[in-house]
Design brief:
Largest interface: A-B, 37 and 37 residues
Largest sheet of chain A: 3 strands, mixed
Number of helices of chain A: 6
Number of domains of chain A: 2
Oligomer: homodimer
Strand content of chain A: 15-25%
Shape of chain A: globular
CATH class of the largest domain in chain A: Mainly Alpha
Number of strands of chain A: 5
CATH superfamily of the largest domain in chain A: Winged helix-like DNA-binding domain superfamily/Winged helix DNA-binding domain
Distance between the termini of chain A: 40 Å
Radius of gyration of chain A: 17 Å
CATH topology of the largest domain in chain A: Arc Repressor Mutant, subunit A
CATH architecture of the largest domain in chain A: Orthogonal Bundle
Strand order of the largest sheet of chain A: 4-3-5
Structural class of chain A: alpha+beta
Helix content of chain A: 40-55%
Chain lengths: 145, 145
DNA sequence: TTGATACAAATAATCATTATCAAATTAAAT
DNA sequence: ATTTAATTTGATAATGATTATTTGTATCAA
């Protein structure tokens, strides 16, 4: 089975297991979240869903995204400028690399982060439950321009 | 000179150098930003300013904070839940440790972050201009309860 | 002191997100 | 297949933090 179908089924199972229905609109949102590599915004998801179901309301997309978020099946990335982006592929905390020119968001691999977290726990006595790490900059493409 | 006065003077100089006036209300906001170790919100700043100048408008506080932010003299920490907090002591990017119970925000020292940034630049070719690193958890005090 | 400009206060506007609610749809039971 | 009870949708209103607007006031340099 493809990777995205595994993710999709995981989302569906999670909803079904909690007495939530899989409607066509909701399924469309789930598919987009499971497929998109580009960390889409609600508006972007809305645009795509409307192609399949033109009468879909923006509120429905918000509610569907909130639902999968509630069950930990999507990662919400809120930014200071108000834009929220979503990652349904890796719904757990991980670092992001944001190009401030073209708004592309990438997932760099930074293995040292785990060590840093452990160091932090040792030093502060905190029980760490979550984290957020974003780097902002200009991607190679945008630097050329 | 005390540390906070140095910070305060730096803020004042930056504003004056850019043809901005130091009004009593604005001075009060600057002092709070330079003094507070607790990463205050706009509302918290507003409360304090009103003690000195009861007629102060919330909009004035927003504008004052936005002004010092414009000149890089305060660090804005926007959170997903909509709450914005400000750091006038260290107005440059640095890691934060947030207790999700009592909303206390601390500044842990994580020297490994610089190495991680360099590694990222090597691997991606990005020109890194900014970053944001937050750890969320329960502080030792709140764990006792 | 004056004059030009910036600023403060009060309030209206904005905009992303959330809440509301009647009508439609769903999944399960008969 | 129908029925049924609950959930979901779609349209729209409400929310709330932040920003813009406006008018009168305070500031600073000459």
């Amino acid at each position: 089975m493809t990777d995205f179908k595994t993710r999709l089924n995981q989302m569906i199972d999670k909803l079904k297991a909690n007495q939530h229905r899989i409607t066509p609109q909701r399924m469309a949102v789930l598919k987009i979240l499971a497929t998109s590599k580009g960390h889409p915004s609600v508006e972007k998801i809305y645009e795509q869903v409307k192609r399949l179901f033109p009468t879909t309301s923006l509120a429905t997309v918000y509610k569907s995204v909130a639902l999968v978020k509630e069950f930990g099946e999507v990662l919400e990335l809120g930014f200071t400028d108000g834009s929220n982006r979503y990652d349904g592929n890796k719904p757990y905390p991980h670092p992001h690399l944001v190009c401030t020119e073209c708004r592309t968001i990438m997932d760099p691999s930074l293995s040292a982060l785990a060590d840093m977290t452990h160091e932090l726990i040792q030093e502060t006595g905190f029980k760490i439950t979550n984290h957020r790490l974003d780097f902002f900059g200009i991607c190679p493409e945008c630097q050329k321009k």
